[in-house]
Amino acid sequence: MPVGMAKAATGEKKVTNMFDNPAAIWSAVAATLAAWCSFLIWRTQRSNLLESLRPELVLMDWGRRQEPHYEVVSFKAIRNVGRGVAIRVYMRNADEWFKQGKRSSQRPWEFSTQCDDIPTLAPNETVKIPGEVVLNWNTGAPDQHGTKTISIVIGIFCWDTRWTRYETVYYLHAFLPSDTLSGNNLVAPGLFLSDRVVHIRSRLSFRIENAARGVARKAARLCNRVRGNSTKG
After folding, report:
1. Contact, 108 vs 136, CB < 8 A?
2. Cis bond upstream, residue 123 (ω within 30)
3. What pairing do the DSSP bridges indicate for beta strands 148-159 and 118-121?
């Protein structure tokens, strides 16, 4: 009996290596490239969508004036230069001095504004919102050149239409005397804008943070209950 007929009779199958078939190789390469191109297209479209919804908030009309007992750095307006609508815009003091709970006499500056909550701020819309930073130059000592510096941190918070949160943080430095510096980053006499950072937080991160806070509160209540029982015992 011939060898081929013997193999067929015994049920043996001929194994073919994929690399011996160029057509199969090129078909796999084409499928991989098509999948990669589809992913890039999806990613580009998603980036364009997110960018079209992103607000970009800037503070405008900065100034600096001298009062009888203190000095004031101020701005007069906030503008949305982004492509998306800003929802629930508000501003806060974002400095560590506030978090540490120091007394007013120990803080080198105090921030106040009437921007408690702006319902919506459309693209290219400007709202007159006065804000002031009171500088207390009595805190701290001058450097070797006789110059005093106060670091200021102002936070602007808002949401977009997908309820993604945007945290815009202004990092400024005020100098005394006010004519110490010169350059393009000066927004007012002696007021230097060192950086402006935007942090983006999704709804998922807020849910995780709220869940973590809930667990921490329950743990604190449980600890207080255990301490109370041990004290009674």
Report:
1. yes
2. no
3. unpaired
DSSP state of 152: E
Q: What is the DSSP string of 97-118?
A: HHHHT--GGG-SEEEEES-S-E
| 3-class secondary-structure state, position 25 | helix
Q: Which amino acid, residue 24?
A: A
> pLDDT tens across 160-211, in order?
988 889 999 999 999 887 776 777 788 888 899 999 999 888 877 777 877 8
pTM, whole model, 2 decimals? 0.69
The DSSP letter of residue 203 is: H
Distance CA 171, CA 94 (A): 10
Rounded to the nearest 10°, the torsion over CA 138, 142, 147, 153 is -60
